[in-house]
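Hey team,

Filing this mostly as a record. A colleague (T.K.) asked me to run one chain through the structure pipeline before their review meeting, and I want the input and output archived in the tracker in case anyone asks later how it was produced. No errors, nothing strange. Just documentation.

Input sequence:
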Amino acid sequence: MKLTRYQWMVLFAAWLGWGFDIFDGLLFNYVAPNCVPTLLGLTIGSPEAKAATLYWTGLITSALLIGWAIGGIVFGYIADRIGRTKTLLLTMLLYALGTASCAFVPNIQILLFFRLIASLGIGGEWAAGAAMVAEVMPKKYRVEAGALLYTSASMGLFLASSVNYLVSRVLFSANPEISWRYVFLAGLIPASFAISIRFFIKEPEAWQSQKGQKPPAIQEIFAPGIRKATLSGLSVSVIALLTWWSCNSFMPVVASGLAQVAIKAQDIPIDKVQMVIEDWKTSITNSFNIGGLIGTLLTIPAAKILGRKWMFGIYFVLSSLAVTFTFGVVHNSNLVIWCWLYFAIGLTVFGIFGSFTFYLPELFPTRLRATGSGFCYNAGRIITAIGPFLVGQIASGKTNVLQGAFGVLFIIGFIPLVGIALMPWVIETKSQQIDETSLY
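Output structure:
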């Protein structure tokens, strides 16, 4: 890719911002099996702890998504007002400090509060970073840059699972009641990188040229000339987000449940139980992550050769097949098989997100780019918040919690098919030039 040194620097800054965004956003999901029972005074691994973990994972994840949505919309608007670079710095500091504060919470209600604080920054970072990359990159490499930007999500997911593995499996394997606090403390890592961004990255020229114009207003993205673009971006975002969060939020919980089934079948000694559970969580997460990375990169040829609409259609069909097969067919407790199944989910459900970093900015003119992109990508999270909450609520009420989760996740697999029905209203932007005027 023939880009200038500065363009690469901008891409790397946004790449780090989004990767750490995912890292901080998902840390709770990995520590939930230890964190939730500890804060509720339950025995880790007990039936009551498993049910409570499912319930609170769903509730806290849904709250995270609502805060994410609010942060994305508000900071998207702020990015169009004060600039992309300043907003990137503010949001990274906010989610880093919010996540690290979770290490010191005395009860689960305070944990929920700090997750909400972190979620505001997590949601806001994406809008600023995606708009900045779209405005700095030349049209010829817009798709590649957007997809490469989202590969950082795999980095963030890998870093989250690695930190959890290092702390829970290596450093504090004998103390699961406190290990999760040190995992949250690692949320401070992004703060040092956030501060450095301010000194090396300047505001895009495209945004600076708009500074003298009338400040953007959120309602403008529903004006007659822009409304069609907003609805197009919102529709594909909602379907993808609802599927991803419903599947991913419970991945560590499902992995822990499967590990316990394997532990009983293999008669593993009690002192090895926690180590086996962490091994399953790490292996399944890494498989999902690798699939997501490959799927993200495949959006480049799919979008450039087939176009955006065909790309979305193919990913939605394959997502439905991957999820329904994984949770609708009886599989044994073989770790290799489950790694391949989660690889397929990552390839499709995770991979489709490589397109949003180039597709959504293509839909809006510069003065509304962060506002519009931020709204489409984040407003859908309010609807998406229903998914994890219902999965946790329904599954936690079942006698067999693991089978209850499987049943609900199987139904989630049909959601991408709704995306197929929405394709006639999705705008194709394959040959479109990003400019400063309304496009529709």
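Quick notes for T.K.: The radius of gyration is 21 Å. Residues 37 and 333 are 25 Å apart (CA to CA).
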